[in-house]
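Worked Example 4.2. Consider the chain below.
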Amino acid sequence: MAFGLFVRSTTTALLVVSSVLVASVLAMPVRGWAQSPAEFYKGKNIDLLIGYSVGGAYDLYARLLARHMGKYIPGNPTVVPKNMEGAGSLRLANWLYNVAPKDGSAFGIIGRGTGFDPLLGNKSAQFDAPKFIWVGSANNEVSICVAWQTTGITKFEDLLTKELVVGGTSASADTDQFPRITNAVLGTKMRIITGYPGGNEVGLAMERGEVQGRCGWSWSSVKSTHQQWYDQKKINVLVQLALSKHPELPNVPLIIDLAKTDEQRQILKLIFARQVMGRPFLAPPGVPAERATILRKAFMDTMKDKDFLADADKAHMEITPVPGDQLETLVKEIYATPPEIAQKAASLLK
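Applying the procedure from the previous section yields the following structure tokens:
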């Protein structure tokens, strides 16, 4: 009898000890293993990947953000800009989705239209855009088509009868897609010479006479990199490519207004809705929700920072920010486009 009591007591004691040990182990991730955001980011570098070459507008926006954003992230990490150009930023989009670390230590900037490549049938796009963490956009963009001063092309109607040779960066970039869709829908006669590494190189090609213009050039980029061309009338602005006009270009026609049928209007809306995300920053899918929220908040806080805005003003860079959650909603809406419209737009881009 005494022996039985001893066994039962010993067993009970062991169970109690085991329960305490299990509870302690289960509690360890909370107390010892989990890192706060400040602990995770303190002393770290965050890579900010840029899908284009050095010197273009995407590069300038990213480097400006990198100089100021770290102070709004807990732990104050250093944000390091790195260029990964290729295929009009499609290379970077694929890398962010499939290769980049998913812990909040890397994000990037891609072309405003690159996220819609899968919808438009680009088989090289290896990502599902709605799954990205959309961090935010530095501006709500208006793009333009321009002709060099020596071409004799001074207004949109001239493009219906005269050929304009424009420079492009890749089949998936605005520089190629915008003139192609304008040709197909409205009957313009732009010929695209593609393969330039970035917008900076297209600008040099215009100066050298290799190409005669550019279509799909952000107005904010013109102001930040080639304001003097506009002031000195070296370029003629032919049409605005967006869903609404820029207040600084009231007399330049808007492409949506040039549509003659409902189908044309729907196709143009699908293509140019991307302008809302003029300079889109995004992180890989799978970033922990807390860190994704931190990146989005830090981005928007930077957009209001007085030193950031002063630097942007000096560089003639337009800042009209769009929050990440709004970009996420826009991407989902565009991916809900009726299949027949998306397929028609995709066929016109080929």
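Confidence is low (pLDDT under 50) at residues 1-33. DSSP finds 13 helices and eleven strands in the chain. Compare this with Example 4.1 before moving on.
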